[in-house]
User: Fold this.
Amino acid sequence: MQRIGVFVCHCGSNIAATVDVSKVAEMALMEPGVVHAEDYQYMCSEAGQAKIADAIHEKKLTGIVVCSCSPRMHEATFRKAAERAGLNPYMVEIANIREHCSWIHKDMEEATKKAVILMRAAVAKVNLNTPLQPGESRVTKRALIIGGGIAGIQTALDIADAGYEVDIVEKTPSIGGRMSQLDKTFPTLDCSACILTPKMVEASAHEKIKIYTYSEVENVSGFVGDFTVDIRKKARSVDMDKCTGCGVCQEKCPSKKAPSEFNRGLNNRSAIYTPFAQAIPNVPVIDREACIKFKTGKCGICSKVCQAGAIDYEQKDEIITEKYGAIVVATGFDTINLDKYDEYAYSQSKDVITSLELERVMNAAGPTHGHLERLSDGKAPKEMVFIQCVGSRCSDDRGKPYCSKICCMYTAKHAMLIRDKYPDVNVTVFYIDVRTPGKNFDEFYRRAVEQYGVNYIKGQVGKVIPQPNGKLLVQGSDLLDNRQILKEADMVVLATAIEPNPDVRKIATMLTASIDTNNFLTEAHAKLRPVESPTAGIFLSGVCQGPKDIPETVAQAGAAAVKAIGLLAKDKLMTNPCTAHSDELLCNGCSTCENVCPYGAITYEDKEVNDHGIREVRRLAVVNSALCQGCGACTVACPSGAMDLQGFSNRQIIAEVDAICR
Amino acid sequence: MKYSYYPGCTLRTKAKDLDDYARASARVLGFELEEVEDWQCCGGVYPLGTDEIATKLSSVRALNAAKEKNQELVTICSACHHVIKRVNDDMKNVEDICTRANNYMELDTPYKGETKVLHYLEVLRDRVGFDELKKKVVNPLKGKKIGAYYGCLLLRPGKLLEFDNPENPKIMEDFIRAIGAEPVIYPYRNECCGGYISLKEKDMAKSMCDKITESAEGFGADMLITACPLCMYNLNKSSAKKIPVYYFTELLAEALGVKEVQAS
Assistant:
């Protein structure tokens, strides 16, 4: 028989205002096995933990129930306290009487009744608890970063500077990401390339960092500390060791009709190309869809002009397999497709562009060489209208429910830069709200309005109407003036919502990392573990976790690096002992558990068993306890009851249910 | 192929052309429009009041008649189409309206929105096919620059009418191409003509219609086509511009070579 102590927490007034805590403690003493019960204002405080330790010593307790907040909050705290007092930490159970009870009920009598029931269930479970010992697993001291934008580069640099090996896998031919497409950055207006390219160079020159561009993660197996990853290096058709990056092949390539991804399709590039002049590595790739040699077999000009003999039409995709201890996802974002927003005439008029396209237009290396001009006729605009929240904060299914967060600031930036460089151009911004929290952000926006005379109108635009004379008529409302506005414009810029890179779903599935309804990767705790995925060993960097600007991305990239370093610094990991195991005599080899296991932790082996004297070879489920996350799906699915979960055994669960139903 | 057909009041009076040309063209295109017996006025926009039941019954009768014949119900007038389609949606999805309407109807089997409602243009697109239509054209309207005028009733609410993309529709442009003419895309093609406001506030209707006709002419349209008698009325009466407006069925009949046959 266990000797159980029950500790009821007031949580200040969080619990005590709704639950009669002394009554819960009093009722606990009537439960089987309970030899001690008390309540206290803050059980998680040092004094509270001391009470638990004292009781363990004085009453020789073998099990503990803490009636308090969610186990997600303080289970670890109380387990550690018990362990310090000499008790196996897995002999501690939490009855959640805060989130599951006091916070959601108003009536004290009812809430107290429920708290007592929750306490009983926990006591019933502890009665069947057994001490569990965590195992150990090794840590491969190398990190993988998926995505080579500013988030991935910063995380890689921080991990590498701490002395660990880092590999970056980047899908496109160069690292740099979205930031390399930006012209200037808020709120300091420094040139994006000027602050990014040194980091790109640093990453590529770092002895601890290996960069795989034009490559994708193909498969991930293993678990925290010991991931095995297949990386597909797509055929570049150019030998990276031989190429000198002279650029002659790109100049001479006769196929120059492929839309430039880097310039958002606003102009064309050659079939053999580097996305931009400062690309790293400065080695081109051949776009086989656009290449005449690959389409017709004739041409081969790039091969002829290449002094280094680097062109290799025969090159094939290559799969390399590497081991990693930690994986950081830094897959970034794209702007949403505007097909469902035809009222803004984006598909009908070349002079309606997205803000990211405007970045390219404003950039000296862009399609207009940095001249602000209409893409339809090359004329300089006199009236520009910016429309905010295109697809953001959208209540129907056309757009996104969230605020894209960066648009208010970059629109203020665009407006300011245009007014500064072209003072005769009038700039009007339609907005729902201007959201500029952040260091020096609101001051920046005020400068756009007060010093640069940008005309901000609170109200949304209903329609952009192309006119026969080539101008655009913007129909909107001014909510502060309560009037309809028809404004003629030469160009309209749409602050288009951002969304996670579409590939992230595939990657999240490979990593078994959870993802929310908007395809943002979910963090382990919204406030306290913002850069970790709930899946151990997976970390989140940049916009893949939620909309953020460059300073925030860099900060989060550093945070993700620290978490990854914290993992890589360990030689061994303690594994969770609450894993599944199969009773060999009950298992009938049906594979049901293997099919439901989300972690690939269950395999089948032919094993000899001794079933009541009968020796035979049977196909049996075997759980890899290093992979098992203890989710319990297999124990529910197993038709013969062979699967059981340590710490959450079928007997324990039934005992809890019985206690609740008593 | 045989469809139940709901012409509506206006197609019997002011918009007789719209009806006649539609029937004549249907014969050439190989489908039959079987007029619903004893149909009544759809009620214009009136039945869209959510607490109104009596005025929805006309639509329910037509819909149920089609159901009993196991036919799809074809409409032409934008307003009738809008009303019948929305009432049908209510019968399918709004339990309260469905129950109350069926209480009035006292049918052997209650009507629950089973009938599919098709606009004549949808029949051309989804049942006949514009490619097939193109093959049947004997008198292609070459060189004609035609602006499609959709108005609002056919397109909105987009999720319910499921007619086309309300902000950038193309069904009428595809129709114009099929009969051999050139569509002119102009931004006001999906804006409202003013509807019944022309009875009360002529100036407002005029300003709304002027925007439409000016924009269409500005982009080079020689003529407009519409499916809606009320749009036709407003564009002709309210607008200062005298751009000709035709029912789409008239140009269809002309392209199919049955316009004169029908007129005689």
User: Anything to note?
Assistant: Residues 2-120 of chain B form a domain with the Glutathione S-transferase Yfyf (Class Pi); Chain A, domain 2 fold (CATH 1.20.1050.140).
